[in-house]
Amino acid sequence: MKNKTFLSLIVGLLFLVSCKEKDKGMDAALAFDRGALLTSMSSNLIMPAYDSAVFYFSQLHSSVNQFKQDTSLENLQLVQQNWKQFARSWQLAAAFNFGPAAESGIKKSLSEEIASFPVSSTKIESFIMAKDTSFANFDRDSRGIFAIEYLVFDLNQNNPNIFQKFASDPWRMHYLLACVHQVGLNLNLVQTGWKSYQAAFVSNVGTDIGSSTSLLYNDFLKYYEGLKNFKFGIPLGRRPGQTTTLPANVEAYYSGYSTELAKEHWRCVQLIWNGTGLKGEQGIGFKAYLEKVEGGNALITLTQNQVAATQAKIDALPAGKLSEAIQNDFAKVDDVHTELQKLTRFFKSDLSSLIGIAVTYSSGDGD
Amino acid sequence: MLNRLNKLFFEPHSIAPLLVFRIIFGLATFISTARFLYLDWVDLHFISTQVQFKYFGFEWVKVAPAAVMYAIHYLMLAASLGVILGAFYRLSAITFFLLFTYCELIDITYYLNHYYFVSLVAFLLIWVPANANFSIDVWLKKTQKRWVVPASTINLFKFQLILVYFFAGIAKINSAWLFDAMPLKIWLPANSHFPLIGFLFNYPITAYVFSWAGMLFDISIGAFLLYPKTRFLAWLVVVFFHAITGALFQIGVFPIVMISCTLIFFSTSFHEQVLQRLAKLFSISFRSEPNPDAANSAVSKIPSSMISFLLVVWMLFHVLFPLRYLAYPGNMYWTEEAYRFGWRVMLMEKAGTATFYVREKTSQREGVVDNADFLNPHQEKQMAMQPDLILQYAQFLQQHYHSKGVEVDKIRAEVYVTLNAKPSKLLFNPQLNLLEIVDSWAPKTWLNRFEE
Asked: ipTM, 2 decimals?
């Protein structure tokens, strides 16, 4: 008897609810296809990002070899040019620091292994002095992309000065080659790794911790916050306890290429948000995901508005070196940080909450 | 009324359900602790954290050194084993209760209703003679063998279980849950890859069905479990309900705990059969003698009036404590006042972004904190939406920078919180100096009101 009442109560309520819901549409096409997101992301952005980084790396690599054969000013300029292109192509790959790029054992994630900044000139010089190119240490600020940069750029664009240093100490060249080798080794491993990982990545369509969507999202967030905190916040002296700005802590301090790289980083954030491919393909990003979930459209509007506000401040960054702009045009750089800060919550809590992505391993009560 | 209560408390009852409950609960805590160790959450939750968020009144509970934390967990395994086997039972039960509760009290960001439940049950197990049969203690003649116990030793656990479901059901009676199917409208589509029925999760109607069914289940399951004719079917529904929610959501061992504990509602003969099968399996003798000590079921020298009084106080407390939210104005989901210890599970989708600004005294220079420097993702997630934890974190930051030689005179925070898919809003005025706010049980008037 009780059971029957219970059952009829449920059926009745369901009927009631279904009537109410009809106008909203009952179409399963409303549903978001996470598999499509993962396919689009991996084939339009992730794989091309690593391919592109590897391509520009190989150009850098051969120009460094050429520079070693013929240590001339022209060849140095070629190395510098290729370094910039490679550093620029790295920006997108840095957003996908999971899967084959994730840390494992004593090996840190790819970003940490090859793209730590600021590098320590003291450490680099002392390793060169000690003729030590083994990298058998945990001083990740003595190698990688920005160690290469330190070696091949001069703060005052005084190329003959660099040239002189290479000419006077063969171990400087050995160290440069070792750095290039280390970057190439790590980068190639990850690029190859992705080729076999892609299928697993695309087929893991869950939203729990460790699922592809969760990995993609969590790294996207870290990548975004990295732009705000490390490329602007710290150089601007925005950390508690910082008493001054730290212009030398910008990414790519020696080449003065920081603004360009930060702009590229920012562009890549939007590629992932929009799902636009590296070659401009129209794909599926987090924005498309939001279109299909409760409350998503409101969040898209808010996010897009703040993206536009941020873009305006980024466009207004002074030309030239970011490290100098921080000293001479502080407000303009600080504005970028402020706008990025305002954008954070949309990417951080609002997005993950609406699409129901797990951000922690621990069990929850579901709040 | 008094008579009825007297019967519920003191009527002689077969000890069998209590024995099975002891074994099953011990197994559940053993599995839970083993899982915790296996996932190395001892490290993740305790050892590798820099900050521990405290329970009000338990600020003195500190995390122990790594070796001790591991030792505690191995001791809990041993204590669970002791409970299962009824070996050094009281010592085991006390040890488990103290250690488990200690671990829970270390960091409030790991608060889970079912951990609270486990603590309560572990506490109650200390006081009941669950080792008075089918146990090592009896075999060692440390304890007098019993076939009959006062009914309260069994009914108390039933009471505790019914409360969990009933309050969880009451909590679901709110407009977001019933009429917007929130948060299931978020959580179900996120699980559309679920085998077989996953495709259904993309339809909003499914979220409504689950919301209403969940509410009705929680509200009524206690009654259906008590009523002998519906009991078995009700338990199957329990299994189904917890299996589904366990598979869908990251809720850990909660389903196992509830599925196994609800067996206590089954009949005496069921539990006797279970014990006989177990006995056969381990070739030990377990033969029920016809109520040899029926007349003398009391297990304690404490007068029964005293026991009645304690039982009533305990029960009243557990009925009233979850209801304390009624004393607070405002939206509980927003303020989180009286949210914990109220059997509110899987009720809301809430997330926040909390940005802390720290001002140095002399220079009046303000810096932005990167929370990841101090908190793990779980702690940050919990802190960023819970007002009391936000205050604790501000205190921590002040002390941290003080220890670095930076004197801080103001910490403010911009905290945006999204609740059930609504656009995120400021939790409180970002100009407030959090260092000046003292946390208490009083309503948190410094919070913004939740705008519907």
From this structure: 0.90
